[in-house]
Amino acid sequence: MGLADDVSTGIDGVLSPNWVIRNGQVVPETADIALKDGAVRLDATYLYADMADSTGLAQKYSDTKVAKVIRCYLNAATRIIRARGGHIRSFDGDRVMGIFIGGSKNSNSAKAALNINWAVRKVIQDKLASKWDSFDWTMNHGIGIDTGQAMLVRGGVHGQNDIISIGGAPNIAAKLSDLRQKPLTISSDVYSRLSKEAKFSGDKDMWTKMGTATFGGKSVLYYSSSYTWKP
């Protein structure tokens, strides 16, 4: 079979089966979902953490130095997401996605975002400057959070596949991470469900109402923050 036939047969194999969908109570691992027709629906909150200007960093410094910088961000973000109850299911270059479920999923994700911002502002930047005397690149980042129902499936082929999340929440969270008027951006659906601890520093609201943005025809009211929170 030539490549053209192989591609055509593969597409038929995706389109022909009906989905076998179940409602999930935990965030599945890749092996928990059948590649052919499996899907899991979750009520979840998605956090996308994205280090900014990796292209500029790569133009200015060696690949070995750039790799250290990106790994610092991903290492800190991953540790914090997991400590706050999130599940890591995707890395994409200098971006990591966390999935939170359960009754405190919105507050936990917001706390994770505030913790990651602390790591960027108070830890990573100082350590990079201490490591390399001539290092003058400033780390910035964007985190977006949204909540709702998502469907998780496997994308790819046998031996080369991973979980992908379908739905408004993962898509909007990714879009919000790109706004960066302030480093942390959450949808109003997340904001309205925050605990007092995740919303206020003393008696001051940490989240500022910014306005609306339109993504794929949907208008999203969002809030942003520059606050940090040492875990």
Automatic annotation (TrEMBL):
Task: List the Gene3D superfamilies.
Answer: Nucleotide cyclase
What are the residue boundaries of the Guanylate cyclase domain, all occurrences included?
Answer: 45-177
GO biological process: one example: cyclic nucleotide biosynthetic process
- Mention one GO molecular function: adenylate cyclase activity
Give the range the annotation lists for the signal sequence. none
Can you tell which superkingdom this protein's organism belongs to?
Bacteria
Do you know which SUPFAM superfamilies this protein is assigned to? Nucleotide cyclase
Protein name as annotated: Family 3 adenylate cyclase
